[in-house]
Write a structure and sequence with these properties.
The protein has seven helices and five strands. By secondary structure, the protein is α+β, with helices and mostly antiparallel strands. The chain has a five-stranded antiparallel beta sheet with strand order 4-3-2-1-5, covered by helices on one side. The longest helix is centred in the first third of the chain and has 28 residues, at 2-29.
Length: 200
């Protein structure tokens, strides 16, 4: 009896969580419909709610924005927009910080979240899987002298929260596993073990 119950849970839990996450994302993306006048929204024209329209609109909006920004005129407009925001006291701090982080994460040129690490946390007798987010620079680098790395240690099972730490490079172990495999390992609380790297 217990065996069949657990087998049923193993089938339904991943499916339910997947549907829940997709529903959540769909709800967020549907907010893009607020850009359309109410009289032209699908539920007004058709008389009923159509799921997924917000997702299509969001993807199209992102694509068009990227297309326009890629040319010279688009880049100039973005620079003008950022210059305007830079003169608004509170906005410039928030926008500047978020833009710097997003540029680092999504540009493909930075080293943020490119390496999975093994670090001693929360004490010397234990290990945690973490991600390298960069290297300290400026004043912090001058104070620390020896080589350090910036590390993000995610929490389980929600890896979007965690702890930021600066650790000596000699105290961290770089792993061969991919970032995706490390995330699965963290989210599953160690149940889904990463495959060992192929031997050459």
């Amino acid at each position: 009896m217990r065996k069949y119950f657990i087998t049923g849970l193993l089938v339904w839990i991943p499916l339910i969580i997947t549907v829940w996450v997709l529903t959540l994302l769909n709800g967020w993306m549907d907010a893009s419909l607020l850009l359309i006048p109410k009289s032209y929204r699908p539920e007004t024209l058709l008389g009923f709610y159509v799921p997924g329209v917000g997702v299509v609109l969001t993807v199209a909006l992102l694509f068009i924005t990227g297309l326009l920004t890629a040319n010279l005129l688009g880049r100039r407009l973005i620079l003008l927009w950022e210059s305007m925001l830079a003169h608004i006291p509170v906005v410039k701090t928030i926008y500047g910080g978020v833009k710097q982080v997003s540029d680092t994460l999504f540009s493909g040129q930075g080293q943020a979240f490119r390496k999975a690490l093994l670090v001693r946390y929360p004490h010397q007798g234990s290990w945690s899987v973490a991600f390298q987010t960069g290297r300290p620079r400026g004043e912090i680098a001058e104070i620390l002298k020896e080589e350090h790395v910036s590390v993000f240690i995610p929490t389980t099972p929600n890896p979007t929260s965690g702890f930021f730490m600066i650790m000596p490079k000699k105290d961290v172990i770089e792993l061969n596993m991919s970032v995706d495999a490390a995330l699965k390992y963290i989210i599953s609380m160690g149940v889904v073990s990463p495959e060992p790297p192929p031997r050459h």
